[in-house]
Amino acid sequence: AQSVTQLGSHVSVSEGALVLLRCNYSSSVPPYLFWYVQYPNQGLQLLLKYTTGATLVKGINGFEAEFKKSETSFHLTKPSAHMSDAAEYFCAVTLNRDDKIIFGKGTRLHILP
Amino acid sequence: NAGVMQNPRHLVRRRGQEARLRCSPMKGHSHVYWYRQLPEEGLKFMVYLQKENIIDESGMPKERFSAEFPKEGPSILRIQQVVRGDSAAYFCASSPDLTQYTDTQYFGPGTRLTVL
Questions:
Q1: Minimum Cα–Cα distance from B45: chain A residue
Q2: Residue A105: which of B42, B48, B105 has the nearest Cβ?
Q3: Chain A contacts of B2, Cβ < 8 Å?
Q4: Which among A43, A102, B3, B42 has the fewest CB atoms less than 10 Å away?
């Protein structure tokens, strides 16, 4: 069965600094991978997704993630943090495009002024 | 094109009452998924429905919970005889027919259920 592990339930970075949110997955077959962002009291918004093809995926708001099969990782990065990036971020995996999504427990990103 | 709509956004129930949560998928979407988010946890899959069919209910509690997606109207998640442990945010997501390319699930804003 597939699963997702997000390292660090809380991450703090200074405004303008690099954002790195870690995600490792477990899957017996090539997965689809996602990053979602959730702002307070709101639903989830898709940041980016990996299905097939290029392993470096660019998403909205300047975020990107790289699928590394050898490391079973899909870490999320952004070169320069902005105050508006403060939110909770969820890594997720699914095996088929009509299958349920398995979510990690989330990482809350804090931006320090 | 309106997004996924959920109502109510906030729902307060007393123990023992019924909670009924509604989800209207995006136009053209015939797949609906329900997820539950408990405090300080990620989202947990509950059920996957297509029109008039339950495809996967492996995440649904065996008792008190039921879901439907009728031919007409929204999908309904029903919780009977609610208990305090049911307090959570319930999110609905929808995706289009498999005949279309995109495979993304689009999430609604959620219904926050509080059981007193």
A1: A100
A2: B42
A3: none
A4: B3
Chain B from 79 to 98: CB within 8 A of any A CB: 91, 93, 95, 98
Question: Side chain identity at B5, as an amino acid letter?
Answer: M
Question: How distant, in Å, are the alpha carbons of A75, A80, B28, B51 from that of A35?
Answer: 9, 18, 24, 28
Report how far residue B70's alpha carbon sits from residue B73's, in angstroms, rounded to the nearest whole number.
6
Q: Name the phi and psi angles at B95, rounded to 5.
A: -145, 160
Q: What are B49-104's pLDDT values in tens digits?
A: 998 899 899 999 999 999 999 999 999 999 999 999 999 999 999 988 664 444 67
Instruction: Say if A95 is an interface residue toward chain B (CB within 8 Å).
Output: no
Calpha distance B89→B40 (Å, rounded): 11
Q: Residue A98 has what pLDDT?
A: 61
Closest-CA distance of chain A to residue B60, Å: 12
A4-38 pLDDT, tens digit per residue, is: 999 999 999 999 999 999 999 987 777 889 999 99
What's the rounded Cα separation, in Å, for the pair B23 and B9? 11
Please work out, in degrees rounded to the nearest 5, the angle formed at the alpha carbon of residue A4 by the alpha carbons of B68 and A65: 105
Distance (Å) of CA A106 to CA A10, A11, A42, A49, B43: 9, 11, 15, 16, 9
Amino acid occupying residue B7: N
